[in-house]
Amino acid sequence: xxxxxxxxxxxxxxxxxxxxxxxxxxxxxxxxxxxxxxxxxxxxxxxxxxxxxxxxxxxxxxxxxxxxxxxxxxxxxxxxxxxxxxxxxxxxxxxxxxxxxxxxxxxxxxxxxxxxxxxxxxxxxxxxxxxxxxxxxxxxxxxxxxxxxxxxxxxxxxxxxxxxxxxxxxxxxxxxxxxxxxxxxxxxxxxxxxxxxxxxxxxxxxxxxxxxxxxxxxxxxxxxxxxxxxxxxxxxxxxxxxxxxxxxxxxxxxxxxxxxxxxxxxxxxxxxxxxxxxxxxxxxxxxxxxxxxxxxxxxxxxxxxxxxxxxxxxxxxxxxxxxxxxxxxxxxxxxxxxxxxxx
Length: 343
Ligand code: SF4
Fold this sequence. Notes:
- The protein is of the alpha/beta class.
- Helices cover 38% and strands 21% of the residues.
- It has a ten-stranded mixed beta sheet. A two-stranded parallel sheet has the order 1-2.
- The longest helix has 15 residues, at 129-143.
- Iron/sulfur cluster is lined by residues 109, 111-113, 116, 118-119, 155-157, 190.
């Protein structure tokens, strides 16, 4: 059995014409899938015999909700399970500019960032394009809310699964389907340089966020193993080339970790790197993770770090602490529930 959500319109056309049906049936099926149906029986304008043929070889790969945690601020964090038992996390968030979902691109992660729960058991497998779409559809069904923005910043490194992430972007942007504007999508990388150039060519309308989390190589290498493969200066160069090519503002994510990267000196050094170019820094007070020694910052440290960047003319936001009453750190819910499953 295969997941029909993986098929782009062209693939669906091949499928239905292979069954001896007219091409327009593919558009109908694609439209139904984008509505979030979970059974072929719901495709009321598709002939019963075609539905029957489809269901013999294909399934609709929306993940099941294992558990959902709703925060008092409207954040909803779900642990999803796919047909093979693989589990990922997705988070639904309400902002003044619309509803957003943060999805995972892999089951686990092999990047090994030392502050992150998602990587503790390594990477189990990649998600397919259709499984990523399934996260969006399942969250929409679960919350009953519309989704206006998608951020690929959950579990996994999107550029370590480039082809499937590209497929997902095409699927969700397809006018016959969910039809979400590429400008409403953000892909977040830990800094895989070759993929940044490729991404600027392939998807210049999609927003790019780069997880920096350090002002220099020394700190970055301590917390993010990817920095051993790609030097800080080279990463900055790739990011500059990205902004020159796309004319889009790049976002740098910076998780503030107490005593590691949160001093005024770190803020000055970061400022000297970013001063004068089209960029934006998103400061994220670290979500503490069970089994990791890192501690989050004080509010005073966040304020003073921010002040230094602003005094240097750098656009800064501090991520609203979403869902502070739930397991907000990415990967933590999966860790806990997997632990429970094993007991
Ligand atoms: S922070 Fe992102 S890239 Fe780093 S280990 Fe976690 S999921 Fe992977």
